[in-house]
Write the structure tokens for this entry.
Amino acid sequence: MGKTVTVKRANVVLTVNADDAERYLKKGYDIFDEDGNIKFKATPSDPGALAKAYEEHKARIAELEAEVAELKAKLSAVPVEAEQPEELAAEPEEAPAEEAEVVEKKKSTSRKKKS
């Protein structure tokens, strides 16, 4: 026999061929790895389990939305200057001055050639 996996649904625990794991997952069994951790969780199919899962997810979404609102409030309280690295905060006046110097050298070189 090939590789086996453990599947569980309610109080039924089975050791089945790994090739059949997908079929058991569709039937509502959770698939566990060798260490006993859930590898794949079956989607509940009965209305009571679905309603319970829905309420759990709604609660988790509310928690996450509250956390997002809290983080947005903290972020809006941060001054804009503190968000920029020093390189970006510095004024870029040096670059145009260097470019102007290069242009002046080109003009003076072209005037010498004309003479």
The two ends are 96 Å apart (CA to CA). The chain has a mean pLDDT of 79. The chain has five helices and four strands.
